[in-house]
Amino acid sequence: MMTLPALPSLFPRLLCGLLTSLALAQAAHADITPVSAAQCARMKSSKVITAGNPVPCQRLATVSFDYNDSEGAVRRGAVVVLDAIAPEVEALFGELLLRSFPLAGAQPMEAFEGDDQRSMAANNTSAFNGRPMTGGGGWSKHAYGAAIDINPLQNPYVSQAGSPTQEVLPPAGSAYLERSPVRSGMAEDVISVFHDHGFLVWGGHWKQPIDYQHFEIGSRAFIQRLASLPRPQARAEFGRYVTAYRQCAHSGASATGGDEDEDTPEDTTLRDQCAARLKK
């Protein structure tokens, strides 16, 4: 004889499933479009991309998405990224919306004429920018569309940390150098989300400089490989990369034989170990 589940235990699961479905429907307001010739022209005229950039416009995509602002209102934003990673970026911002993680703004860099400091001063979340690394040197990972900066005010860039020549960008970010307790809009709240979508490197873990706003997918060699492959193969390779991390990071919950309790603290040790071991 079949035993029916007790209604008191069944109802919460049904309600949870319904609420999750409704939340996912809300987060579905996102789309991916290739960078058009007109958009590429705007990027060139605003110095966001040049002929020497390591990735051409043809390998870039715009991800448009809904996000919560600091007042809880839903706004529309967009970032430009390498086409191979665009589906995961779309899903990433959808999850930030589900979590009600606030973004102050999200505009492609042509809105700031490619000026990184202007974008940071506006507390703008961004991705592609055809510029060298801050402080000089080779191309930034942003020039490949393989890095995202979130809420620069709450997550500043800090050079020469702790020294008399310490510099904080944007300067107003000095109010957020104390990282505990975590405040609204700070990256520590969503490291797991970025990792879960393939951004296995967080600049907040760096010793010098410290770049709390910055997430990137991995090494320059890995990014260059994705950019060199045809888009379908590149997306497949990045998909395998993401899957390997998820299998590692979520193995702890599987080993305990069930879903993690929402009140259980996140196992950041396992998360960070998986990211360090699997990043390419």
UniProtKB/TrEMBL annotation:
KW Electron transport (keyword) present: no
Region (Disordered): 251-280
Name of the protein: Peptidase M15C domain-containing protein
Peptidase M15C domain sequence ranges: 135-217
GO MF annotations, alphabetized: peptidase activity
InterPro entries for this protein: Peptidase_M15C, Zn_M74/Hedgehog-like
Pfam families in the cross-refs: Peptidase_M15_4
Keywords, sorted A to Z: Signal
Signal peptide stretch: 1-30
SUPFAM superfamilies the record matches: Hedgehog/DD-peptidase (SSF55166)
